[in-house]
Design goal:
single chain, 4 strands, two-stranded antiparallel ribbon, 2 helices, alpha+beta, about 90 residues
Length: about 90
Protein backbone atom coordinates (compact mmCIF):
# COMPACT_ATOMS: atom_id res chain seq x y z
CA UNK A 1 0.00 0.00 0.00
CA UNK A 2 2.82 2.42 0.93
CA UNK A 3 4.60 1.80 -2.39
CA UNK A 4 1.39 2.55 -4.34
CA UNK A 5 1.04 5.92 -2.57
CA UNK A 6 4.67 6.84 -3.33
CA UNK A 7 4.23 5.87 -6.99
CA UNK A 8 0.96 7.82 -7.21
CA UNK A 9 2.63 10.93 -5.72
CA UNK A 10 5.55 10.58 -8.15
CA UNK A 11 3.17 10.28 -11.14
CA UNK A 12 1.21 13.36 -10.06
CA UNK A 13 4.46 15.30 -9.56
CA UNK A 14 5.68 14.38 -13.04
CA UNK A 15 2.33 15.39 -14.55
CA UNK A 16 2.42 18.67 -12.61
CA UNK A 17 5.96 19.50 -13.83
CA UNK A 18 5.07 18.61 -17.42
CA UNK A 19 1.93 20.78 -17.45
CA UNK A 20 3.75 23.67 -15.77
CA UNK A 21 6.60 23.49 -18.28
CA UNK A 22 4.19 23.37 -21.21
CA UNK A 23 2.20 26.35 -19.89
CA UNK A 24 5.31 28.47 -19.42
CA UNK A 25 6.43 27.78 -22.98
CA UNK A 26 3.02 28.52 -24.49
CA UNK A 27 1.99 31.55 -22.48
CA UNK A 28 2.08 34.82 -24.43
CA UNK A 29 5.10 36.92 -23.60
CA UNK A 30 4.55 40.51 -22.46
CA UNK A 31 4.65 42.94 -25.36
CA UNK A 32 7.69 45.18 -25.04
CA UNK A 33 6.05 47.92 -27.11
CA UNK A 34 3.51 48.51 -24.34
CA UNK A 35 6.22 49.79 -22.01
CA UNK A 36 7.26 53.04 -23.65
CA UNK A 37 9.64 54.01 -20.85
CA UNK A 38 13.04 52.60 -20.10
CA UNK A 39 13.67 50.47 -17.05
CA UNK A 40 14.63 52.65 -14.11
CA UNK A 41 13.49 55.86 -15.79
CA UNK A 42 11.57 58.27 -13.56
CA UNK A 43 8.01 58.76 -14.78
CA UNK A 44 7.53 62.21 -13.27
CA UNK A 45 9.04 64.62 -10.80
CA UNK A 46 7.30 65.94 -7.71
CA UNK A 47 7.57 69.71 -7.35
CA UNK A 48 6.40 72.20 -4.76
CA UNK A 49 3.79 74.87 -5.44
CA UNK A 50 5.37 78.27 -4.60
CA UNK A 51 2.11 79.57 -3.09
CA UNK A 52 0.48 76.76 -1.09
CA UNK A 53 3.70 74.68 -0.80
CA UNK A 54 1.90 71.47 -1.75
CA UNK A 55 3.83 68.82 -3.71
CA UNK A 56 2.36 67.55 -6.97
CA UNK A 57 3.52 65.83 -10.18
CA UNK A 58 5.17 68.36 -12.51
CA UNK A 59 3.28 67.06 -15.56
CA UNK A 60 -0.05 67.89 -13.88
CA UNK A 61 0.95 71.39 -12.85
CA UNK A 62 0.09 74.71 -14.43
CA UNK A 63 3.20 76.27 -15.97
CA UNK A 64 3.82 80.01 -15.87
CA UNK A 65 6.97 81.86 -16.89
CA UNK A 66 7.45 84.91 -14.64
CA UNK A 67 10.44 87.20 -15.17
CA UNK A 68 12.26 84.55 -17.20
CA UNK A 69 11.82 81.96 -14.43
CA UNK A 70 9.61 78.87 -14.71
CA UNK A 71 6.95 78.33 -12.06
CA UNK A 72 4.56 75.41 -11.67
CA UNK A 73 1.36 75.65 -9.68
CA UNK A 74 -0.97 72.92 -8.44
CA UNK A 75 -4.07 74.88 -9.50
CA UNK A 76 -5.10 78.04 -11.25
CA UNK A 77 -6.33 79.41 -7.88
CA UNK A 78 -2.85 79.12 -6.40
CA UNK A 79 -1.32 80.68 -9.51
CA UNK A 80 -3.71 83.65 -9.36
CA UNK A 81 -3.11 84.18 -5.63
CA UNK A 82 0.66 84.03 -6.18
CA UNK A 83 0.46 86.56 -9.02
CA UNK A 84 -1.54 88.95 -6.81
CA UNK A 85 1.25 88.84 -4.19
CA UNK A 86 3.92 89.83 -6.72
Amino acid sequence: MFIKVIILIAVFYIIYRTVKSWLLKNMPQPDESIDSGKVGEIDDVMIKDPYCEMYFPKRKGIHKKIGGEDFYFCSSDCMNKYLKLR
